[in-house]
From TrEMBL:
HAMAP family: MenG_UbiE_methyltr. It is found in: Mitochondrion inner membrane. CDD domains: AdoMet_MTases. Belongs to the class I-like SAM-binding methyltransferase superfamily. MenG/UbiE family. Pathway: Cofactor biosynthesis; ubiquinone biosynthesis. Keywords: Membrane, Methyltransferase, Mitochondrion, Mitochondrion inner membrane, S-adenosyl-L-methionine, Transferase, Ubiquinone biosynthesis. It is an enzyme of class 2 (transferase). This is 2-methoxy-6-polyprenyl-1,4-benzoquinol methylase, mitochondrial. Methyltransferase required for the conversion of 2-polyprenyl-6-methoxy-1,4-benzoquinol (DDMQH2) to 2-polyprenyl-3-methyl-6-methoxy-1,4-benzoquinol (DMQH2).
Amino acid sequence: TSFGFKEVREEEKSKLVGNVFSSVASNYDLMNDVMSAGLHRLWKDRLVSKLNPFPGMKHLDVAGGTGDIAFRVLGSINSISRGAMQDVVTEGLDDETRIYVCDINPNMLNVGKKRAAERGLGEDHSLLWVEGDAEALSFDDSSMDGYTIAFGIRNVTHIEKVLAEAYRVLKRGGRFLCLELSHVDIPGFKQFYDYYSFSVIPALGELVAGDRQSYQYLVESIRRFPNQETFAGMISNAGFQKVEYENLVGGVVAIHSGLKL
Ligand code: SAM
């Protein structure tokens, strides 16, 4: 019947979309490695080390895509609890740990869930995947100990709304951390970086991902994003205290941090 036929086609279509998305996600990973010479892994490690994850914590990783940050947070917590197996203070707290990965794109979340399963974390009840918009989070006020956003804030429509939401969902004492491509301001290095951004990145995009335009757009979006000081000011304006940032590779990326006190 036409109904059965349609069903099959729907199923094929979603399989197809799934495949396209897995290939986009693996292309995306490959491009991250190629463009940053593998450094994005170290930058993400650095972000999570600044977070100081602890057993029992409630953490929200926004624009969490394929789970890169969440897996590191969980890994860090697990290594603490394994080391403190006998410690009565942390005993049992593992059950309380919750790491929410929030992303607006359900396909990215599906890739993340698949990766969790591949890492043997498929049944881990501390990892939760939530479809949602950084500008209007579905989480309660003052419910999170930590908030991270890695390579996610540059492309949102209203940065202020994202910051206001981060502030709202954090508990007092909770930390906001943002890893983002930023601005290089070191003479000599800046010329090299400009050449790399405007000439090499689009060419690599074409070569590796067969997509020059998206990578040209990526470079332009980095230029449009507020510089380190301006962005720090925006974080303060959202209510955060002790706002600071750390430049990595001369400002190619920056980690901004703030506390809700
Ligand atoms: N955090 C991951 C990483 O560092 O590899 C993924 C970064 S990826 C460049 C950006 C992610 O932001 C995508 O998964 C995209 O779906 C998500 N995103 C874009 N706009 C968003 C929004 N308004 N709210 C939540 N997620 C968003």
